[in-house]
Structures are given as structure tokens and as C-alpha cells.
Amino acid sequence: MRPELPALPGLISAAEVAATAASVAALQEPDGALPWAQGQHTDVWNHVEAAMALLVGGEVEAAHRAYDWCLETQRPDGSWPMTFLGGRVDDPVAETNMSAYLAVGVWHHWLVRRDESFVRRTWPAVRAALDFVVGLQVPFGGIAWARDAEGRVDDSALLAGSSSIYQALRAGLAIAALLEEPQPDWALACGRLGHALRRHRDLFLDKSAYSMDWYYPVLGGAVRGPDARALLASRWHDFVVPGLGIRCVDTNPWVTGAETCELALALDAVGDQDRARTLVHEMQHLRGEDGSYWTGYVYPDQAIWPEEHTTYTSAAVLLAVDALSRTTPGSDIFRGSTLPDDVPVTGLQCGCVRSGARGQVS
């Protein structure tokens, strides 16, 4: 039986959601990989995001093939290469954020399908991936962004990437609780990371020109409540272009669909559904005739750029529509009410939280 598809009446219909999911599935390669666009590379983060979107968009078989690809391409240390191209490793660097994201996809699958056999089958890969990620936590609590092919670690911590890892660690802890396999090291790492994301964002590598660094601490769940609303208000006028979406970079007159929908998801997570829905509505100018989405739009030139339909943009649209419509149980994945909201904040080097304190997410 085909699952109910999300829709936002007056904005995007269930049939249009199905067309968008089908456009993503049409780009799936024979081995199950979901590349950025036709002929482009695949990375595991965007691949998992696309698999989540396929699941809510009714392309269940394609989603399962995508998760099989994750299991088949994971390396023994729990990581994945940065990128694949044409079925081969394109860049061997192991990026922590990308490796962590499988946990979010598996928890999302559980929320949607309640298939314990799937969770158990993917659990060894989730466990290995998060063990790899936690092993690269740096002293102030952030997560080092990558390890190169020679084993050298770049201990610079990226704010957006670490924010996504925070969500992944909470998803991993939820899976561990479901399977009754506690992972105390993940909980400790999650507590330290959450504290850094709330109180020490200045210690992360400065990528503040990018909109992702602005909203990702909210999207990943580390910042909630009044602090989240204040953070989103702080740079609203730097990035939001009324009627079109949001800029990817604050210096460039280029709005991008994926970032616009991610900001909508962050707004939804803090209860601002009206502005979230407006953003999803305003970025529909990027929709193609077959339901796929262009990456972005240079508004002074009134030009689509680059001229490519990207799976990650379509995926962000579908996840935002599901979140705002509350259609599937997976629509909660970014609001996070099914994830652990109390992790230990201990072992800090900053001295601003006493050892053993608990860190509330909201």
C-alpha cells in the first residue's frame, strides 16, 4: 500500500510531491548512489538526506537501495570517503559530518516505517560511524571536520557540520535506547558538543559568511527557545531576500533552494510555521516542469545558476513539506521531540558549567 504523501494545500500537492520524489529516484545510479545531479559526485550526507526524502515521497524501494549503498561503501573505521564519482572513490578524505548523518536517516526511517529489522541491520554501521566521529572531538567540544587519507586530522571544527553532528548523536542515542545498547561515550560527547554550540560558537572556524553557519545550530537542535529565536533574528536581513528565498553567502546576490528550505525547517522547529511556510512558497520559482528543483537563482541577472537540478534541493523541499504538513511520523526529525533532550554536560575545559551538570536542549 502506497504511503500517504505530504502536501501543503495551496502550495504543493501530493501529486507534485510524488513527482519531485520520482525526479530524485530517476537520478539514482545502478549501485544505489544518489549523486548531487546527473553525472556529478555523491557524498554520504546529501545521499542520506535524499534517501529520507525518497521515503516520505513514496519511493520506498529507491530509499532502501540508497541505504544499502551506505552499508556497502562504509570503510572499516566507520567513515566514508568524502565523495564518489561513477561508482569509484573520488576524494578519500573522511569528513565527520558526512559520516555521522546515517544515524539521522536510520532514526527517520524508524519513525516512518517502524521496521525494527531495518534498524538492527543498519545499527553496526551507525555505531561504527558515530564511534569514528566521537573519536575526533576536540578539547573545546567541537568535532574536527576531517581526517585525510594519510590519517592526519584537521582539528578545525565547523559550526554547521558540528551542529548536524549534534543531531546525529542524539539520533544515535535514540537508536541505542531502542535496541537497548547504551552508548555512554556518545552521550558525553553530545553534552560537550551541545554546550560548545550554545556557548562557544566563537571557537569554531569562522564561516559566518555562509547562511548555514547562521541557522544550523537551531536546525541541529542544540539551540532552542528564546535563544534560537534571537539567533534566527540576528542575521535575518543579511540572508533573507523577500519573495525569492535566502542567500547561500551574504556577499552574493544568489538565493538557493536547499538553504531556504533548511531555514524553513529551523523556523518550524521553534514554532514559527508561518514564516517557514512563506519561505517554502517563495522558493517555488526554482521548481522545474518535472518536479525537480534548480539549485539557485542570481536575482540581479534574473538567471538560474548553475543550470542543474540537484537531488539535495529536491530533498530539502520534500522534508520541509513533510515537516510543515505533519504528514509522516518522520516529520518530527528536525523538531526533535523523539530524541533525547537531556545529556550530561561534563568534562568541559571552559569552566562555565560545573562537572556533572545536565544540559537541556530546550
From TrEMBL:
UniProt entry tagged with the keyword Transferase: yes
Gene Ontology molecular function: any one: transferase activity
Keyword set, alphabetical order: Transferase
Gene Ontology terms: biological process: carbohydrate metabolic process
Keyword DNA damage: no
Entry-linked SUPFAM superfamilies: Six-hairpin glycosidases
Name of the featured protein: Prenyltransferase
